[in-house]
Each structure stands twice: as structure tokens, then as C-alpha cells.
Amino acid sequence: MKLLVTGGAGYVGSVCAAHLVDAGHDVTVLDDLSTGHKDAVPGGARFVEADLAEAADDVLADGFDGVLHFAAKSLVGESVQRPELYWNGNVVTSFRLLEAVRKHGTPRLVFSSTAATYGEPESVPIREDAPTRPTNPYGASKLAIDHAIGSYAVAHGLAAVSLRYFNVAGAHGAFGERHAVETHLIPLVLQVAMGTRDSVQVYGEDWPTPDGTCVRDYIHVDDLADAHLLALEHAQPGRHAIYNLGSGSGFSVREVVETCRAVTGHPIPAVSAPRRAGDPAVLIASSEAAQAELGWRPQRTDLTTIVRDAWEFTRTRTP
Questions:
Q1: What confidence category does residue 181 fall into, taking pLDDT thresholds of 50, 70 and 90?
Q2: What is the distance between the alpha carbons of residues 185 and 191, in angstroms, rounded to a whole number?
Q3: Does the annotation count 11 as an active-site position?
């Protein structure tokens, strides 16, 4: 298929683009490089450096079989402080992409959504029919895009899939996580191992969990990419399907730190800090729908594998 990957110079987008190229697809990456890296665009993919909102119409006029939409702003704290960046950068930009998709008859769309659309869960594991009550503008902006995509699917026959990620981690060879502002636990811990950070903060050690620290569902980025390829194959005209992507099990902050210590061989000091407002004690996905309807099975659920792949990338790359 001829496919457009928006945000394909970022972490998840670049890994998925690499998988698509390896699978023999004709891939064009569209990225403004505001947070992505040009050297993350996989060989074999065409690269267009441009603002998505401005370029979507012209690029899609060339005729594509589908779009994988990763381009977005994704810092929760920033979204609270500057919500205008998220309503414009995520929602308005995605609307312009949807209009270009409609105008040029692009038949498929796979959207990079998030577990942040659910907010604080009433129960775990979280299913797709759980209430969606996002607690920050980032999650709210992604939920708004999900709603827009659903309406376009019904009205215009678009075959659409939204994939709601839980905690993505790991790396795919030379393609991995390197953000200017890092907020994710595993790369933060590995920065301590690299010596670029003094310690990692543990936000609360009195949560109602086995070791007192928060528990999260980590999914290897390669498993995530596999789900995107399956979503392209199974997308149905006139339907907007939503799937959670996670391993279905959780690891605590303490377990992540201990695993990073074991993998890297570094002591990695950890400092206790107060709980953060809005942090749920446990976030674990139910991915039964993706398994049943897409035939997706995560293959790399071992925490040591996830950390080892991330560490190999981190120690061989310059941020």
C-alpha cells in the first residue's frame, strides 16, 4: 500500500514507519521536525518536511491508500499550562488532515490515540467501553479527535482505527525514544545510568500496590507497530474501531528501577518524592478486543527485554 505517516520522525512514528518499509509498503513520512529527528526517518521512505496542517492537502492529492497519524503534542504538564497549543496543534491540525482525507478519498486512517482519554479508571484492567473522562487537555484533545474520526467514518465511509496506547517503551534497533523534554519513566531511569541525570524520583511509596509504588502497563514499541500493520489490514469502511494496546499486566516503579539496575549494571539512585495529583495507583489495559478482532498478540512483554532494547538504543545514541 501507498501510505502517509504523519509524525514519522518521532519515536513511535519512526518505528512504525520502519516496520511498514520492512513489510514492503510505499511510505511517505510527513514531519515538521519540531520534536522529531530527520535521521529517525527510515531508509526507503520518502521524507517531506512540512507543517501537517499546511501540507496535508497537497501531499494527499498525490493519492494514498491510507494514513497513519502520529503527529501530535504529547506533554501532559505542558497541556495543562498551555492548552491552546493542544487544541490547535492536535485538534485543529487533525481536522485539517481529516478534511484532506475526505477531499482526496483516502480510504484508511489509523490514529495514534492514548489511554489518557480514560482519565482515572473506575476499574482495571481498562476496557474500551470504560468511561472517557480525561483529566488534562492532552487526553481531552485526543478524545476530541477520536470523536471527529468516528463521525467522518460514518458520514464519509472512512475505514478508521484508533489505537489507545498505554506506556510505550523499548526500541527497534536504531529507532528509539529521545525527547528534548523527557517525562517517561524508563528513559528517565536510563538517563541516570548514563550519568546525564543524578537520580530518578519515585512519586509516592504508599500507594495501595504490592510494593507501594505506582503500577503501569508497559508495551514494547515493536508490539505496538505490529498492531498498526494489523489495523491497516482490518480497517472496515464506514466503521471507526477503537482498541487498547497494552500487555495486560503491570510493573511497579520500583520493579522498573530494579530491572534497569540489573540490565545496565549501574546503581541508579532513586529519591522518594510526594505523590503527584491525578496519578492513579494502577493503570493496566485490557487488550482483549485487539486480540480478538485484529489477531494481535504482544510478543515482547518481559520487562527485561523492554529495558534491554531501550538501554541498547540509549547508550549508542546521542539525544
A1: confident
A2: 10
A3: no
